[in-house]
Design brief:
The chain has a domain of about 200 residues: Vaccinia Virus protein VP39 (Rossmann fold, 3-Layer(aba) Sandwich), CATH 3.40.50. The chain is about 30% helix and about 15% strand. It is built from eleven helices and nine strands. The strands form two sheets. It has a seven-stranded mixed sheet with strand order 3-2-1-4-5-7-6. A two-stranded parallel ribbon has the order 8-9. The longest helix is centred in the first third of the chain and has 16 residues. S-adenosylmethionine (SAM) binds next to α1. S-adenosylmethionine binds next to α1.
């Protein structure tokens, strides 16, 4: 557990997670003491993970381009978290309401309209703010304001909140009675990759086996709380060629450190990137295999990626390995989610008697 809250009145606040994935966002809310009642997603493997780690919540398989049936069953929900993926969403020219890309957003508004939660938090990529020259963001805020919400938004970098990862995401928060106050970022205690994962081995560890070495940092101790052994630490077996190329890249380096004839072997600008041991990791992605461990000649394991996302070791990922990487890379880092949840509680608790 990541420092559970002690205020038992928090359990009165119920949360619904839309597009819940594995449930990083939900997990942070649970850790802050909220009660996550259900998560919706159409990815069955992600839902397996969600259910395993949120045994008291319903994991509901549903295509959210369609309104949620029996939505009135969730009228007691206080907070809706998660938001429609807005990439591809368009308001320009024709705002065609039958356009498939707009269905997710419409269904999301439909949910808010019917539940009328005290608050919602939508997470998205920062580019959401720039899309269509800012008009998309303006339209979203106008729609939500028309429903009675006071909406504010901010881009947060997870590394400024105790997560060992430079991950920037925008959070739009709507509340019925006041504006949300965002947590204040700090660069005082930045956690780096080495702090986060140096206690995990180069080789695979069978699920449930014990740790190969004692924790070396406070962060590692925090991640191990409640853990019953290591899970999801299966090292990828690369070809000898891949291993010999990445071996040429120093800690924190990338394809530019390779001999000229090898620089173009992967046609992406993040090719052959090795994490820097002394810095937070770059954004954990959904498994493109271009980021390598700062020391070992392989990509990070699911567990190492989960650590860099601030999932504790007790949070176990289900499904195929490719799906596990996707689930981890998609998630809101639980420690950041918990920080947001605590701020939200501070504001909402005024209404709880
Ligand atoms: C960014 S991820 C959410 C991650 C989650 N908030 C977390 O913290 O773990 C977006 C999720 O939306 C889901 N999704 C996308 N389109 C969907 C749809 N039409 N219906 C249901 N879920 C959908 C994906 O399967 C994915 O799990």
């Amino acid at each position: 557990m990541l420092m559970p809250e002690e205020d038992s009145s928090l359990t009165k606040l119920k949360v619904l997670d839309l597009f819940c994935g594995a449930g990083g966002f939900s997990f942070g809310f649970e850790e802050a003491g909220f009660d996550v009642v259900a998560g919706f997603d159409f990815d069955k493997e992600a839902l397996l993970t969600f259910q395993h780690n949120h045994p008291n919540a319903q994991a509901i398989h549903h295509d959210l381009s369609q309104p949620i049936p029996n939505i009135e069953n969730f009228k007691n929900v206080d907070v809706v978290i998660g938001g429609p993926p807005c990439q591809g969403f368009s308001i320009s020219g024709k705002r065609d309401s039958t356009d498939e890309r707009n269905q997710l957003y419409k269904a999301y508004l439909h949910t808010l309209e019917h539940i009328q939660p005290k608050a919602f938090i939508m997470e998205n990529v920062p580019n959401l703010l720039a899309m269509e020259g800012g008009l998309l963001k303006d339209q979203i805020i106008a729609d939500l304001s028309a429903m009675g919400y006071l909406v504010t938004y901010q881009i947060l970098n997870a590394s400024h909140f105790g997560v060992p990862q430079n991950r920037r995401r925008v959070f739009l928060v709507g509340m019925q009675d006041s504006y949300f106050t965002f947590p204040i970022p700090t660069t005082n205690d930045i956690i780096n990759c080495c702090d986060a994962i140096s206690d995990l081995s180069d080789s695979s560890i069978d699920d449930g086996d014990s740790y190969p070495m004692p924790p070396a940092t406070e962060y590692q101790r925090l991640m191990r709380q409640q853990s019953k052994g290591i899970f999801n630490h299966e090292a990828t077996k690369h070809t000898d060629k891949t291993k010999s190329i990445i071996a040429l890249v120093p800690d924190g380096g990338n394809y530019k450190d390779l001999p000229l004839d090898l620089q173009g072997t992967r046609k992406v600008n993040i090719a052959w990137t090795r994490y820097a041991s002394g810095k937070p990791s770059p954004t954990i992605d959904t498994g493109h295999n271009h980021h390598f461990h700062y020391q070992y000649n392989r990509v990070p394991t699911v567990r190492e990626s989960a650590r860099l996302q601030s999932f504790p070791d007790s949070f176990i990922f289900k499904g195929k390995k490719t799906s596990q990487y996707r689930q981890v890379g998609n998630a809101v880092p639980p420690i950041l989610a918990k920080t947001l949840a605590r701020n939200l509680y501070t504001i909402l608790k005024k209404d709880i008697v």
